[in-house]
């Protein structure tokens, strides 16, 4: 497992054009598999369009203390893209007027942005209904200055969503790096100790499960049952919901698929598992994703492929919700990842 | 291209058997689907049984399919290997129990 991002290694997959080229060539160009656009059309579904905006997802930077092998952001300690306070202020102006009921902060490790706490304090004053921070858990243990994050989250009534690929050490460390499992367990204990994730607590703690390899997630509910049993029995840890998220074939996960000769089989699995009823609820229909430098995207995955919204408004500084809601969603073959099986989104299954 | 009897990509074409015998093919796939639904046994338990049988009948397609199925269900490698041993133990037991037949015949033919 590499300890550097694709960008740092100057890997050709660091270029989004290269990724999009791979996703459009080969089995999709020769007709072996239908493109996502063809599949949607053939199924008799309309082209993807936004519904009511519900989630404003803001990526405050690609810097992270981990270098997970499946990361679609290509995040890592060597990434220097960090949202400035000025862009954060522009986001706050939007948060004050948006009709979205959920604010979702992500990264990288969002906590590593030097203005993260200021931003959370300011955003929490707006009183948005559901305020999510996606925390990788280990950041809480990474340095003394982060140890109080659970109390900080509690103070601002933040809904914590954290990654946990498996309840066993081996699988977790293989995907996320040596030592990640033990640190994650310690961080979960810290969160539990202030009330996060406890059975009747209003302090929401949800976990995200990504398969550790070239396979799709299984039924979210049964996975949640297995996770809960294992984490309570072995570590006395509690959490609320488990979101099962499919790995999309982009960035470092795409690198892994190609290097392990799993790319074609994985794309076949995604296409075979195409679920028309997941299409109507994919997250791009109710989400706007904002990048560290203020550009707007249909989702976090399109952000990483630099596929900006197809709208006159493309930047947070010019944000106009009514105009943005009247756009076509930009798609490519990675979209199959969100429509496979029970569907997949940052909030888990959708079908 | 190297010629082999087994081609991994043939697994994707499995449902094509229906094209040459539609009624029987469909009946088989309906039955197959029903068998692996949750029942008195969980789908997880059935997946492990399928993996064990896949090894006993030495079906490379089934081994690929049920290793992947197990991973998707969060089945651990330790559980998978124990299932394979359960299959192997029955298979070798089935061979060894015939040793009794050999012993019987030996005794019968010997003075």
TrEMBL record, chain A:
Database matches in InterPro entries: Aldolase_TIM (IPR013785), ArsS-like_C (IPR024521), rSAM (IPR007197), rSAM_ArsS-like (IPR026351), rSAM_sf (IPR058240)
Q: Which Pfam families match?
A: DUF3641, Radical_SAM
Q: Where is the Radical SAM core domain?
A: 58-196
Q: Which CDD domains match?
A: Radical_SAM
Domain Arsenosugar biosynthesis radical SAM protein ArsS-like C-terminal: start-end pairs = 216-349
Write out the entry's keywords from A to Z.
Iron, Iron-sulfur, Metal-binding, S-adenosyl-L-methionine
Q: Domain of life, per the record?
A: Bacteria
- Cofactor needs: [4Fe-4S] cluster
Name this polypeptide is given: Arsenosugar biosynthesis radical SAM protein ArsS
- Recorded source organism is Galbibacter pacificus
Lineage, please? Bacteria, Pseudomonadati, Bacteroidota, Flavobacteriia, Flavobacteriales
Q: Which gene encodes it?
A: arsS
TrEMBL record, chain B:
Cross-referenced Gene3D superfamilies, in alphabetical order?
AhpD-like
Q: Which residue range or ranges hold the Carboxymuconolactone decarboxylase-like domain?
A: 23-101
Kindly provide the name given to this protein in its UniProt entry.
Arsenosugar biosynthesis-associated peroxidase-like protein
- One Pfam assignment: CMD
């Amino acid at each position: 497992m590499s300890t550097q991002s694709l960008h740092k290694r100057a890997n050709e997959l660091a270029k989004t054009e290269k990724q999009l080229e791979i996703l459009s060539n080969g089995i999709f160009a020769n007709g072996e598999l239908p493109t996502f656009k063809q599949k949607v059309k053939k199924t008799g579904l309309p082209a993807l369009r936004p519904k009511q905006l519900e989630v404003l997802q803001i990526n405050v930077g690609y810097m992270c203390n981990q270098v997970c092998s499946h990361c679609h952001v290509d995040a890592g300690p060597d990434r220097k893209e960090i949202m400035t306070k000025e862009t954060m202020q522009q986001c706050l102006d939007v948060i004050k007027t948006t009709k979205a009921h959920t604010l979702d902060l992500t990264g990288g490790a969002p906590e590593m942005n030097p203005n993260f706490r200021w931003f959370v304090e300011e955003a929490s004053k707006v009183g948005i209904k559901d305020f999510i921070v996606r925390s990788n858990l280990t950041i809480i243990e990474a340095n003394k200055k982060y140890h109080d994050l659970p109390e900080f989250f509690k103070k601002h009534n933040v809904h914590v969503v954290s990654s946990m690929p498996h309840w066993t050490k081996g699988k977790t460390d293989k995907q996320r790096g040596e030592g990640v499992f033990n640190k994650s367990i310690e961080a979960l204990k810290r969160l539990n100790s202030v009330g996060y994730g406890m059975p009747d607590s209003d302090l929401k703690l949800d976990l995200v499960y990504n398969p550790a390899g070239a396979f799709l997630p299984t039924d979210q509910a049964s996975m949640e049952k297995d996770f809960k049993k294992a984490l309570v029995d072995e570590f006395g840890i509690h959490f609320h919901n488990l979101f099962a998220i499919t790995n999309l074939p982009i960035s470092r996960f795409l690198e892994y698929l190609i290097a392990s000769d799993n790319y074609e089989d994985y794309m076949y699995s995604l296409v075979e598992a195409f679920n028309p009823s997941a299409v109507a609820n994919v997250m791009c229909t109710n989400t706007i994703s904002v990048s560290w430098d203020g550009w707007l995207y249909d989702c976090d995955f399109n952000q990483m492929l630099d596929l900006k919204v197809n709208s006159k408004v493309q930047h947070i500084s010019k944000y106009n919700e009514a105009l943005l809601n009247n756009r076509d969603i930009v798609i490519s073959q990675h979209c199959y990842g969100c429509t496979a099986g029970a569907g997949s989104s940052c909030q888990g299954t959708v079908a | 291209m190297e010629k082999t009897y087994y081609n991994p990509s043939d697994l994707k074409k499995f449902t094509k058997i229906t094209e040459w015998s539609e009624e029987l093919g469909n009946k088989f796939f309906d039955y197959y689907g029903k068998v692996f639904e949750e029942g008195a046994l969980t789908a997880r338990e059935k997946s492990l049984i399928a993996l064990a049988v896949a090894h006993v009948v030495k079906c490379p397609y089934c081994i690929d399919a049920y290793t992947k199925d197990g991973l998707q269900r969060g089945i651990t490698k330790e559980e998978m290997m124990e299932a394979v041993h359960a299959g192997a133990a029955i298979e070798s037991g089935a061979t060894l129990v015939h040793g009794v037949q050999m012993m019987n015949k030996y005794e019968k033919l010997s003075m």
